Amino acid sequence: MSQHPLAAADSDLAPETAAKAATARDALAERDAVLVAFSGGVDSAVVAALAADALGDDAVACTARSETLPAAELDDAKRVADEIGISHEVVTFSELDDPNFVANDGERCYHCRTMRLGRMYETAAELGIETVCDGTNADDPGEGHRPGLRAVEELDVVSPLLEAGLTKDDVRAVADAYGLSVADKPSMACLSSRIPTGLEVTKARLTRVEKAERVLREWGFEGFRVRDHDGLARVEIAPDELERALDPAFADAVHEHLTDVGFDYVTLDMAGYRTGSVSPDGESEAEGAAEAEGDDAHAASDDPAPDLGRRYPR
Fold it and tell me: For the whole prediction, is pTM greater than 0.90?
């Protein structure tokens, strides 16, 4: 990490962005210690970097391991925490213990965030830390239906990026100034966002979505989702990658692999990938994401990765 990453003269940061980041860092420096709800996504990574910059060993990153985020994201969180040089705690909880979350109504993200941040506060108390921070940025409140933000307010979580006025573009610029590898990382919504509102969130559904998306990721796709419509997989591919998905060889391979992991039927959504396509009122997928929450992880599956040796055009 750069010694003076927020000094505009020492980086490519715009003076206004550098000033906002310095404001966030200085506000953190006024705290005795902080625990950062940490996913390893760009928002929570920047909060962690600012906290480590401001407080040194009195800053701790904490990732909550649960069923709702791909296991690879936990590995990323560990790697990014090491990159930042911040102490990293991993705790475990299960959203599936809450019937309100399982019911998957329009308030699912509120229930998830309440549980998740509650676990953060428990860990902070064990470490003698009073302040819990998250990665909410200045763009988040304006992005549609966001019940999870209500939990942040109710629990008095500190949102340094929001308070300093740092937008998503600012956050990415600051991450780049710190030399963080996640500066350009896309937002990653939790796996429950792949299940249509009103359809119960179950471990079986989360598991088959994770396995299906692992296949697409291994094949080199970057913008995609696999939506679980009660056993029917609706595959969304980003428009700039859709041509690859229209190849008959892809159709054969994706049908074979996704039925192997538990889907009954496999379809390709010709509208392509777009966030929140199974959520009410345009709810942002980031509600359930490591990005917005800053603290997601997933209980790593013991199942082996699928055999991807079959022919598929790259």
Answer: no
